[in-house]
Structures are given as structure tokens and as C-alpha cells.
Amino acid sequence: MIQPIVSHRETQVRFLRFLTVGGTAYVVQVLTMKLFLLWLGTNLAFTLSFVCSTSTHYTLNRFWALPSSRHDHGRQFTEYLGTACLSYVINLAIFRVCLDVVGLGRIWSTAVAVPPSTVVVFLLLNYRVFRKERGSAAES
Predict the structure, then answer these.
(1) What is the DSSP letter of 37?
(2) Over the stretch 80-133, which tens digit does the pLDDT of each residue have?
(3) How many whole angstroms from its chain centre is CA 87?
């Protein structure tokens, strides 16, 4: 019988840790967004706050929430950046819709923009970027 990639319980623990990391990264994004808005335009402030948040997110996921047995760290980081770019596109699109169409303020638009990409990002990070070893030498 083929073993699942990760047990159901382990996936739940990884998801809870991922949400904790996401919450921390969200706080970083909102705080830095408020700070950057003091000196910068809206899109630049959003982008820089996203970079700060993403850096926090990568570090905490890589070393705590989604520890990985992969040894190809350069490729792993590249895959993470691809996931972060996808997340950025989703977040910025929702941010602009909330800001320009719905009429929310910049901070509320930032808050609404974060959750929609969470499931997509978790699936990509958990099952691809920070996956557990599957026994294949090709993955290391």
C-alpha cells in the first residue's frame, strides 16, 4: 500500500503553523504599510510592505512551519519566489479592486487582499516548495 505524502494529522499541524506564520506576516505587512504610507505613494508602499511580509513569511515557513527535507535550496528559494509572485498578483489585484471599485481605505484593502491567496499559497508551499521527502533521489 502506498503511504500518503504526509499524514492527515501532520498536514493539519503544518497548516496551523502556516496560519500562524501568515498572521505574523500579515501584522508585518500592515505595520510596514502604515509606516511606508507616511513617505511613499500607495502602490510603492503596498509593494514594499509585501516584500517585508514575504521575507518574514519565507523565513518562518522554511525553518519552523513547513520544515523541508529538500537539499536543493537554490531551486527551493526560486520556487518560493514564484509562489510569492503569484501571491503578489492575487493580492495586488484584490487590493486595487477593494480600493478603486469597492471604495475601502488602504489599510482595509490590504486586510481584505491577504486571505484569498492563503489556500493557493499553502498548497503550493506544503506540497511543492517545502514538501517532505518522498524517497526520490531526484528531488534532492
Answers:
(1) H
(2) 999 989 988 998 899 999 999 999 998 899 888 888 887 788 888 888 888 766
(3) 7
Q: What span, in angstroms and rounded, lies between the C-alpha atoms of 29 and 49?
A: 5
Over the Cα atoms of the chain, what is R_g? Answer: 16
3-state secondary structure of 136: coil
| Phi, psi dihedral angles at 69 (to 5 degrees) | -95, 5
Quote the number of domains for the chain.
Answer: 1
**Mean pLDDT computed over every residue of the chain:** 84
Domain assignment present for 109:
yes
d(CA 70, CA 140): 5
Q: Is the pTM of this model over 0.85?
A: no
The residue range of the domain holding 81 is: 8-132
Establish if 140 belongs to a structural domain.
no
